[in-house]
Specification:
The model has no long low-confidence stretch (mean pLDDT 82). It is globular, with a radius of gyration of 19 Å. The relative contact order is 0.16. Helices cover 69% and strands 0% of the residues. By secondary structure, the chain is mainly alpha-helical. The termini are far apart.
Length: 195
């Protein structure tokens, strides 16, 4: 395994942890001070219905990229600039800023709607600092780590089952957010005479 590939696993594994910790916390703690990502997205959909279309479109694009659509030329470690330490400084600084902003927001907001504002702050900053900006950095100039999609493809090459798990997860997420709060919805059992 090349150093470039290893750095990709470290960078994107760290990002996965940053996303997973508040998400799992919100799922596990019944009265968490912020909602889950899907709860936050569902609240946005209630406030502005076109949000659902935007969320679904982003998930479809992510699934297409993860399965190889529009595959760009692969970067190699020879393209990576010196100073491979800066992504870790960036991630550490982004984490401190995100946590600090979350604490600051939690001191300002309260009540049921305040939970969602805190969710917007936390998940919005995570999306900006840990997903959007690294993707822009990788597109705009060469960074010393592979993109998330390249890292997923490397992992898929090593463990082929990863592609199926990622794709299944994205489809479940798509249905969950498009029909939020699926699967926690009331179902009826139609009879043969039902329309």
């Amino acid at each position: 395994m090349s150093r470039f590939e290893r750095i990709g696993y470290v960078v994107w594994g760290s990002v996965a942890l940053v996303v997973a910790i508040p998400e799992i916390w919100a799922l596990a703690v019944n009265d968490a001070p912020w909602p889950t990502i899907s709860g936050t997205a569902g609240h946005l959909e209630d406030l502005w219905h076109p949000t659902a279309v935007i969320v679904v479109a982003l998930i479809v694009v992510a699934a297409a990229l993860a399965t190889g659509y529009g595959r760009p030329a692969e970067r190699t470690p020879t393209n990576a600039p010196a100073g491979a330490w800066w992504p870790f400084l960036y991630l550490g600084s982004a984490l401190v800023f995100t946590v600090g902003a979350g604490f600051l927001a939690s001191g300002v907001v309260n009540g049921r709607e305040g939970r969602f504002v805190l969710g917007y702050v936390i998940y919005g900053l995570i999306g900006l600092f840990f997903l959007f900006l690294p993707a822009v950095f990788g597109w705009a100039f060469v960074v010393p780590f592979p993109s998330l999609i390249t890292t997923l493809r490397d992992l898929e090459r090593r463990v082929p089952l990863v592609a199926l798990v990622v794709l299944a997860g994205l489809v479940i997420l798509l249905i969950h957010l498009a029909l939020y709060p699926w699967p926690d919805v009331t179902h009826h059992n139609p009879s043969p005479g039902s329309p």
